[in-house]
Amino acid sequence: MTVSECRPEDVPELLASAAALFAEDGGRHDPYMDTGWPAREGAAYYAGLVEDPACLCLLAGAGAGHLVGRLRGPDPLRPGAVTAVLESMRVAPDRRREGVGGALVDAFVAWARERGTNEMTVQAYAQNAGALDFYRARGFRPFLVALTRS
Questions:
Q1: Residue 46 and residue 9: Cα distance in Å, rounded?
Q2: From CA 26, how far away is CA 128, in angstroms rounded?
Q3: Beta strands 65-71 and 83-91: pairing type?
Q4: pTM of model > 0.90
Q5: Phi, psi at 7, each rounded to 5°
Q6: Going residue by residue through the chain (150 aa), what tens digit of pLDDT does each one get?
Q7: What is the DSSP secondary structure assignment for residue 73, as one 8-state letter?
Q8: How buried is residue 98: exposed, middle or buried, by Cβ count under 10 Å (0-12/13-18/19+)?
């Protein structure tokens, strides 16, 4: 299994993985998630990310998954934080528990550290215990908690 940075010609594969994440995760855990967004807006969005030096778009070989990360701009309320955000990650269901997710996160962490970050963040749905366990096992810890009410 290989992890490689996306090139412009890889955008359709990146988009397919991201669309699957929208359906599998957002569609399951968020009743307001627009699971049609990738089909309408995703091609231009992900093409822009692939070209942006402040973003990292990775693919795991043979359709195993993807990761999207980005550097966050300065925050005047937290001037000491230099932050990278793990924006999106998916591992294909038939490739889980093979180390794909760990390889993607390791590449993200290395990329972020090379750019001088001292903080990396990721969001996961509170109901997605598997994702929470996965990220905790890789050193992420709860920092902020968002509460919602209908």
A1: 11
A2: 10
A3: antiparallel
A4: yes
A5: -110, 165
A6: 799 999 999 999 999 999 999 999 999 999 999 999 999 999 999 999 999 999 999 999 999 999 999 999 999 999 999 999 999 999 999 999 999 999 999 999 999 999 999 999 999 999 999 999 999 999 999 999 999 999
A7: P
A8: middle
